[in-house]
C-alpha cells in the first residue's frame, strides 16, 4: 500500500471505530489506548501521520498492519522515555583534541595535567546532559498536563510533539533548535510552536506562554529542574558519567 492509499482508507474511520476495531485488540492499557486513539484520529484529520520508509511501506497490505506498526513505534518510544531508559545517554562523537591541547598550553604554568583531564571530562558530561534535555522536557510536559494533551512518542505525527483532538503543538528546548524541514511542514498548518530557551534568556515568559496553551500552571522552569533532578535520582542509568568523574557522584 502507498501512504496515499492508507490515508484514504483511514479518513473514513471515526475515532470510536478506530479505537474499537483496530486499537483495542492490540493495546491492553487504557491510558495508552486513549493516547493512541487521539494521536491517530488527529493525524488522520490533519494528514500528518508517520509512515514507514518506502521499502517497508510497500510490504503493508492492510490498515490493521499499518496500525500495528504505528502502535509499535509509539509504545517502543514510550517505554524508552527518560525515566525508564536503561542505557545511558552520551555523545558518541569523539571530542576534538585540539581545544584540550590549547587549554593545556594556556594553563600549563599554573594547573596540572589532572585538571586538564577533568576539565575535558566535565565538558563531556555537560554535552551528555545537553543531549537529553529535550527528551526530559517532553516527559515533564507530558507528566504535568491533563489527559487531553498527548505526547506523540516515537514521532508518530510528523513534526508534532503534543496534540489534543483540536490542537497541535511543536516543542523545542531552544529557539534555534528547529530544523528547516519541520519549519516547512508547519507553514500553512495549525501547529503551534513553543520553545523553552529564548534568545534573551527569559525562561519565565516562555513558560507563561506554554501554561496558556495547555492550561497547566505546573509548567514552570523551577518545576522542570526539580523533575530533571528527580529523574536522574530515580534512573541513574539515564546519563553516562565519564570514568574519571564517577567517584565524584553518588548515583
Q: What does this 3D model show about the protein?
A:
The structure is a single chain. With 251 residues, this protein is an alpha+beta fold. It has helices at residues 3-11, 15-23, 30-46, 54-57, 63-79, 97-107, 113-143, 180-186, 203-214, 221-234, and strands at residues 150-151, 162-163, 168-174, 191-197. Strands 1-2-3-4 form a 4-stranded mixed sheet. The chain is elongated. The relative contact order is 0.12.
Spatial sequence of strands, sheet with the most strands: 1-2-3-4
The class by helix and strand makeup works out as alpha+beta
Number of strands: 4
Q: Which stretches of 5+ consecutive residues score pLDDT under 50?
A: none
The average pLDDT is 84
Strand content: 5-15%
Helicity, as a percent range: 40-55%
How many individual domains?
2
Q: What Rg is obtained from the alpha carbons, in whole angstroms?
A: 22 Å
Treating each run of at least 4 consecutive H or I residues as one helix, how many helices?
10
Order of helices and strands: HHHHHHHEEEHEHH
How far apart lie the N and C ends?
49 Å
Overall 3D form: elongated
Sheet with the most strands, sense and barrel status: 4 strands, mixed
Amino acid at each position: 500500500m502507498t501512504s496515499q492509499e492508507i490515508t484514504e482508507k483511514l479518513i473514513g474511520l471515526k475515532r470510536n471505530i478506530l479505537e474499537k476495531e483496530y486499537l483495542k485488540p492490540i493495546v491492553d492499557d487504557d491510558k495508552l489506548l486513549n493516547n493512541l486513539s487521539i494521536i491517530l484520529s488527529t493525524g488522520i484529520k490533519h494528514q500528518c501521520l508517520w509512515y514507514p520508509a518506502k521499502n517497508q511501506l510497500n510490504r503493508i497490505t492492510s490498515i490493521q498492519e499499518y496500525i500495528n506498526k504505528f502502535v509499535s513505534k509509539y509504545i517502543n518510544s514510550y517505554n524508552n522515555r527518560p525515566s525508564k531508559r536503561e542505557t545511558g545517554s552520551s555523545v558518541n562523537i569523539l571530542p576534538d583534541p585540539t581545544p584540550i591541547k590549547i587549554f593545556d598550553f594556556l594553563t600549563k604554568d599554573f594547573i596540572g595535567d589532572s585538571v586538564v583531564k577533568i576539565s575535558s571530562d566535565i565538558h563531556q558530561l555537560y554535552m551528555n546532559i545537553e543531549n537529553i534535555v529535550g527528551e526530559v522536557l517532553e516527559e515533564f510536559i507530558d507528566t504535568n498536563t491533563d489527559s487531553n494533551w498527548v505526547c506523540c512518542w516515537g514521532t508518530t505525527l510528523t513534526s508534532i510533539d503534543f496534540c489534543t483532538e483540536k490542537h497541535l503543538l511543536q516543542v523545542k528546548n531552544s529557539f534555534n533548535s528547529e530544523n528547516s524541514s519541520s519549519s516547512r511542514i508547519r507553514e500553512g498548518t495549525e501547529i503551534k510552536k513553543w520553545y523553552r530557551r529564548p534568545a534573551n534568556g527569559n525562561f519565565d515568559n516562555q513558560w507563561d506562554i506554554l501554561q496558556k496553551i495547555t492550561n497547566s500552571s505546573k509548567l514552570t522552569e523551577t518545576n522542570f529542574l526539580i523533575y530533571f533532578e528527580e529523574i536522574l535520582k530515580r534512573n541513574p542509568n539515564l546519563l553516562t558519567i565519564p570514568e574519571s568523574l564517577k567517584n565524584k557522584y553518588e548515583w
